[in-house]
Amino acid sequence: MTDAQETAAETALRTTGGAPPDDGVADGVADETPIPLLEPREGIPPVVADEHALAEVIAAFARGTGPVAVDAERASGYRYGQRAYLVQLRREGAGSALIDPVGCPDLSALGEGLAGAEWILHAATQDLPCLREIGMVPTRLFDTELAGRLAGFPRVGLGAMVESVLGYALEKGHSAVDWSTRPLPEPWLRYAALDVELLVDLRDALEKELDRQGKLEWAHQEFDAIASAPPPPPRKDPWRRTSGMHKVRRRRQMAVVRELWTARDRIAQRRDVSPGKVLSDAAIVEAALALPPDVQALTALPGFGHRMGRRQLEQWQAAVDRAKALPDAELPQPGQAVQGPPPPRAWADKDPAAAARLSAARSAVSALAESLNLPPENLITPDTVRRVCWEPPAEVSADSVAGALAGHGARRWQIEQVTPVLVGALTAARA
Question: What φ, ψ does residue 248 adopt, rounded to 5°?
Fold first, then answer.
């Protein structure tokens, strides 16, 4: 960090204290204009796109010291899937590196070289899946976004955090560009390098703030849970998440959605483009509702029309026809099997006592979260509260409620904080 950067960081933390004393929430650098961060300290590093250059980076980062800042850029909305198209790193003693996973698709050696280091990521759960695909899996991490939530910051985007904690303004104009573009333009590379430029500094400042608030151990438990979590299983029936699906009521119409979604996904994967660029969700739903008898009728629907070639229209009509020809026994069921409690809006009718428990528990959790200056969903997940309220322990006690919370995956700090208020809420609801 340069002298100017250190001065700005100290001013920001001194002015906000990481969080103003009146409400404990850091909401920016008071009376300070953020300093635009325009260039990486050592300039824009060259893009690493071959094995020789990668080996040099691996060696340099293995020699480095302290935590390593990690970021990844995807091409969401442009390409199929969520693969990484650029990986950015920074570490003391190694500087910054930009790695092209297209030219270097296997980064497992880099991941192994950094295995003993703490990885700093912002919103780690967004980047870990694409990093895992290329062989980069941390054993320890520090999530600056989650740290900001636990510390009570109202805005936890990277730009907002860097500005309010360190006093610098990051240029965020390239966050949604097509990172599969080759060669990557210099302004994009500058933006990418700046995303890891101050992550170590941000991590250090947030660690001090969490420690000041007595929440550092909470953060460590959260970070450990993220690092040790297994990859999520493939989503069952992903076609059910088609936007506008709530309009589709009949099983035959659902079958049309399923057939069109599956055909679109196959084409998108083959072309390596975002499925929405092949056919929109809105068009799929329109076809499902209309059940067009032929290509001419399909062409008249929104989302199809004259811009599509005859061959494209025929393939979509073929999918509709397949759904229309299915026997009733093969049609999808109206809803997925519900895992866990029903939607809360149905509780009053299904189980008024459970609805009363949930209302009391929600109020108690919200009040506790406010007193601790963190979002209720970070104190305990709403799903966990719902599950405990829907099927509470037969005998409500601190031990039984703590055991129920642990069974649903709550961390130790969450159990310690939430158990007393849940015991009180469940007991009061029974009275």
Answer: -90, 115
pLDDT at residue 21 is higher than 80? no
CATH 1.10.150.80 fits 238-330, yes or no: yes
Which CATH superfamily is 344-430 part of? HRDC domain (1.10.150.80)
DSSP readout, 58-79? HHHHHH-EEEEEEEEEE-TTTS
Q: How far is CA 411 from its chain centroid?
A: 19
Domain residue extents for the chain: 3-228, 238-330, 344-430
User: What architecture is the 3-228 domain classified under in CATH?
Assistant: 2-Layer Sandwich (3.30)
d(CA 214, CA 373): 12
For residue 96, the surrounding DSSP H or E stretch is strand 95-99
Q: Give the relative orientation of helices 186-197 and 199-212 as an angle to the nearest 10 degrees.
A: 30
User: At CA 263, angle to CA 259 and CA 269, rounded to 5?
Assistant: 145
Displacement of CA 161 from its chain's centroid (Å)? 17
> pLDDT per residue over 95-111, tens digit each?
999 999 999 999 999 99
Q: Which residue has the tokens 């199929």?
A: 80
The percent of the chain in helix, strand and coil, each rounded to the nearest 5, is: 55, 10, 35
Check if the beta carbon of residue 390 is closer than 8 Å to that of residue 404.
Answer: no
- Kindly tell me the burial class for residue 44, based on how many C-beta atoms sit within 10 Å of its own C-beta (0-12, 13-18, 19 or more): middle
C-beta separation of 96 from 45 below 8 A: yes
pLDDT tens for residues 55-79?
A: 999 999 999 999 999 999 999 999 9
pTM of the model: 0.88
In the chain, the amino acid numbered 396 is V
Asked if domains 238-330 and 344-430 share a fold, the reply is: yes
Where are the alpha helices (H) located in 64-116, listed in sequence order? 108-113
Peptide bond into 36 cis (omega under 30): no
What are the residues whose beta carbons fall under 8 Å from the beta carbon of 428, sequence distance 6 or more?
360
- The SS3 assignment for 239 reads helix
Token digits for 98? 């930009």
